[in-house]
Amino acid sequence: MTTSTSTATTTINHFINGAETPGEGDRTQPVYNPATGQVTGELRLANRSDLETAVAAAKKAAEKWGDISLAKRTAVLFKFRELVAAHVDELAQLVTAEHGKVLSDAKGEIGRGLEVIEFACGIPQLLKGEYSDQVSTGIDVFSFREPLGVVAGITPFNFPVMVPLWMAPMAIATGNAFILKPSERDPSPSLLLAKLWKDAGLPDGVFQVLHGDKETVDGLLTHPDVDGISFVGSTPIAKYVHETATRHGKRVQALGGAKNHAIVLPDADLDNAADHLAAAAFGSAGQRCMAISVAVAVGDAAELLVKKVEERALAVKVNNGTVPGAEMGPVITPASKDRIRKIVTDAAESGAALVVDGRDLVVPGHEEGFWVGPTVLDHVKTGMSAYTEEIFGPVLVVVRVDSLEEGIKLINANPYGNGTAIFTSSGAAARKFQRSVTVGMVGINVPLPVPVAYHSFGGWKNSLFGDKHIYGPEGVSFYTRGKVITSRWPETHHASGASYNFPSHADDSHAVRHDGIAEGLPDELHGGEDTVPGRADDESEGRGRRD
After folding, report:
1. Fewer Cβ within 10 Å of end Cβ, the chain: N or C?
2. Is 289 a catalytic residue?
3. Model pTM?
4. Are the C-beta atoms of 505 and 108 separated by less than 8 Å?
5. Does residue 106 contact residue 95 with C-beta atoms inside 8 Å?
């Protein structure tokens, strides 16, 4: 990144083949600080030439990196992990400046990214193959996994460090070259990550950053030298990415949107539930794919739960993310602010109870920021846009039901299936819930059930396109492809053993030796004393046995 003194903004460049570069594209896009509403940077957007340069560098680098020993790969990963940990504060400041989330939340996302790096450091164990000895006489079979080659990650604005770290360490550890296309909203953290990869000793071209818009995305989805695509974003775009890239012969994992429900039963600790609902709904201004946006209040729990959530929503400290004690920052753009306010207004006009109204929040000293305060809507109906749409803002809607069974039915009828939670003191209810919901990630008295790095992250239904979840064991599988070797090293005297019949290992017990006697029988049954199957003695080659 370079700073322009004339405009007091930063020019945000690409990182291609080991170096920061403005590229050849002449288009740019402004980058904002959402807390102030001010332009802080000008992002260089790639053109086709920049894309071709990056892909060519990645293809060349992948050929060598894929042959690097696992010991050397892990040495780079361990060093990268050390460098990221040492730059947490700097990364968090970049995230807060361009995304708006509070510093503590920014540091939290970096911590979750570090967990994936640590998991990737165990790649020698994760890439151990399988070996089957003597599947047929003199034949062994073994399998292992090889890298895809060149893979790209297209990541969203809401986690500018964590989501790239869900992808890149796994792709690189498994021997691929990785091209990151980060969000245009908060691109600066990706450049610092690129420099840390280089400082860790990663060869040029193995990790690159290419900024762009739909033109760049489409170029990656259709380029013949890109072998795999990882995507996190909204459901319509995830579906588009999956359909386009698979049509062009690529492996794709595309994680889409969510409408995460949390059921609260009357037997739950309602103070605990309210605390977690507020944090899960309003943290990061609700701009999380795992945010709880629907509280399903069961029976008698409803009235008291809504009152307790109201108290917590009113107490949230909304401010610039750099201000000590701030708990929630702004939303990402003016367009997001306007959309959220409209959805809330439509719900209120359609009969929902506006318990807490954050539409007109103003933060003193930051009047131009993109602010929406914590908002709570009660008595929301399933036909309202506040229920059907992924709001992606600090809005918690409350839907009331009469039973756990009705709540499960409500969740399963929703087209999304990313995450869900239940708050209860009943083990039986929790077990019924976890086995009945058609959702990929389930929390029991845990509002944001984001799996640890050695499991895998991903939803069901319209929250995932493709069959592989991200990071963890499924991440290893996604970025590699299997190869099976059937190996035979015959004795040099009779190296053929060829047959016109289709090979069948099951027929090995009926194989006939050169002397016409069935192999596999004890010697005493055919009179041989020291016969070696399939081998003639040097002195009587071709006769099949020794006298």
Report:
1. C
2. yes
3. 0.89
4. no
5. yes
